[in-house]
Amino acid sequence: MSKNKPSVLDGFKAFLMRGNVIDLAVAVVIGAAFTNIVNAVVKGVINPLVGAFGTKELDSYASCLKDPCKLVNGEMQGIQIMWGSVLGATLQFLITAAVVYFLMVLPMSKYLARRAEIQKAKEGVQETLEVSELEVLKEIRDALVAQRGTSAPGPSGTSGPSAVSGPSGTSGASGPPGAPGHGSGR
Questions:
Q1: Which of 25, 42, 52, 142 is paired with 174 by a 20 to 30 Å CA distance?
Q2: How far is Cα 173 from Cα 162, in angstroms, rounded to an integer?
Q3: Is residue 147 predicted with pLDDT exceeding 80?
Q4: How far apart are CA 108 and CA 170, in angstroms?
Q5: Distance CA 33, CA 89 (A)
Q6: Confidence band (pLDDT; 50, 70, 90) for 186?
Q7: What are the DSSP calls for 79-122, one per residue?
Q8: CA–CA separation, 30 vs 103, rounded Å?
Q9: Distances from the Cα of 15 to the Cαs of 2, 4, 18, in angstroms?
Q10: What's the CA gap between 148 and 109, in Å, rounded?
């Protein structure tokens, strides 16, 4: 095995440890358990409600396309369309979709929207703080520029006491000549 090329087992391990694979596995297990609940609701609630108007089992609803639609020796004679089974599967799908939407998707989307609003509000407060700090800094800058504009220009043509040039042409500190840091060459 080469050090530059990862092994197949390392790649497989990385694949299994990714978050979306684990989420998918959890979703499959929860979905299988949820299917049992939906099937129980359809058989225990929906079928009896339909049975109030006809038979108890939706699977027993059928139409004969080609006569005779009779059971002979365990085999159906003729062509029968089992539309009751399709109706039962459709009802199971609609119930599953409604439960998933109203109990999972809708609350999660409201929660995410609320979090987005909170995050947006936090960003707005942060922008306000940054703008306030920027305004304060602009005011300080303007005050310094105004202060420099009112003072007399120094020997090098710039204003302010800190721009005084020493004999070597470098800027020195203000103070009496010969003082340390004045640029007197000492």
A1: 142
A2: 6
A3: yes
A4: 67
A5: 17
A6: very low
A7: EEE-HHHHHHHHHHHHHHHHHHIIIIIHHHHHHHHHHHHHHHHH
A8: 14
A9: 20, 19, 6
A10: 58
- 10 Å CB burial of residue 38 (0-12, 13-18, 19+) is buried
pTM for the whole structure: 0.45
Q: How confident is the model at residue 171 (pLDDT cuts 50, 70, 90)?
A: very low
CA atoms within 13 A on the CB side of 1: 7
Please give the Cα distance from 92 to 38 (Å, whole number).
7
d(CA 104, CA 54) in angstroms, rounded, equals 34
Residue 38 near residue 90 (C-beta atoms within 8 A): no
Tell me what pLDDT residue 152 has: 54
- Residue that the structure tokens 């409201």 belong to: 110
Whose tokens are 């990862």? That residue is 6
Is residue 117 within 8 Å of residue 72, measured between CB atoms?
no
**Closest to 153 measured CA to CA, from 163, 144, 145:** 163
